[in-house]
User: Which sequence fits this backbone?
């Protein structure tokens, strides 16, 4: 049964995944300068709408979906954990291809990453405890929110600070590193996930079919929630595209780190995060192909 299944992931592999995600975050951060945050603070409505969509609307929609469909405990907790993560690293590229506000997307990723130190463990603990089957897993695992915060901080926030500092004080170096580092980090990340899944391929295939529909529905809810939040906030279509994609592209790599680091590689959770990592790229690129045909009003 999927709630008892455990995927094999060596401690050394987990450390390597942490390092890869840090490099990915650094490659995003060297696009940012301190003044980018200052501009957003002067006109914060789009940023606030994006963070509300990311950390309040999506977890709430996820909980309602879990209540309605009653999935297995580990699958439900996997969906909640993915919803609690900040935006994924490919959201900036997809927003650009969709003709949305890429600068807003990059800043949302950065600020959501910092906020994730508090919001990710808080959302996992809060929403997970409201669904009795997933609450039972949380009681057994005794997840420590402080340790989750430390993991997020070292893996995501430290590279973010270093990247912003490099782009602010050594922009020529950042400019030379930016494009090759982004492609290299993404290639390494995808290759690592493929290799990690290969070691558990039989289990992944055994459970992926049952989970695929839930992940596709969950991702659609995330996109719809982002679009609805941006519409209610009366954002321009240009900003609305960024908020929609940022909400629908989750940092499933961080989700995998947390699952293997704190939940022992619990099968349902790991398959959810792994399938999310595949599907959100497909849905995001498809949405970008549709939106990219027309220019968004700013």
Assistant:
């Amino acid at each position: 049964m999927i709630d008892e299944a455990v995927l094999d992931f060596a401690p050394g592999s987990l450390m390597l995944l942490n390092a890869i995600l840090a490099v990915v975050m650094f490659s995003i951060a060297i696009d940012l300068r301190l003044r980018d945050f200052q501009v957003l603070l002067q006109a914060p409505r789009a940023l606030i709408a994006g963070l509300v969509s990311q950390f309040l609307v999506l977890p709430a929609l996820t909980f309602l979906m879990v209540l309605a469909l009653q999935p297995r405990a580990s699958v439900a907790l996997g969906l909640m954990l993915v919803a609690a993560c900040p935006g994924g690293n490919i959201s900036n590229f997809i927003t650009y291809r969709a003709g949305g506000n890429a600068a807003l997307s990059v800043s949302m990723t950065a600020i959501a990453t910092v906020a994730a130190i508090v919001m990710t463990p808080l959302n996992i603990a809060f929403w997970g405890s409201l669904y009795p089957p997933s609450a039972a897993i949380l009681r057994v695992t005794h997840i420590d929110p402080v340790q989750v915060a430390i993991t997020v901080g070292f893996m995501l926030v430290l590279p973010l600070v270093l990247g912003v500092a490099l782009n602010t004080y050594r922009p020529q170096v950042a400019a030379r590193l930016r494009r090759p580092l982004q492609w290299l980090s993404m290639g390494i990340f995808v290759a690592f996930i493929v290799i990690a899944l290969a070691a558990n391929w039989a289990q992944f295939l055994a459970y992926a079919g049952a989970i695929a529909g839930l992940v596709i529905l969950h991702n659609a809810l995330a996109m719809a929630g982002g679009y609805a939040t941006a519409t209610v906030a009366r954002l321009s279509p240009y900003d609305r595209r960024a908020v929609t994609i940022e909400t629908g592209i989750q940092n499933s790599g961080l989700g995998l780190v947390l699952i293997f680091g704190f939940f022992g590689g619990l099968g349902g959770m790991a398959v959810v995060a792994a399938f999310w990592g595949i599907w959100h790229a497909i849905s995001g690129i498809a949405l970008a192909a549709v939106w990219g045909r027309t220019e968004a009003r700013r």
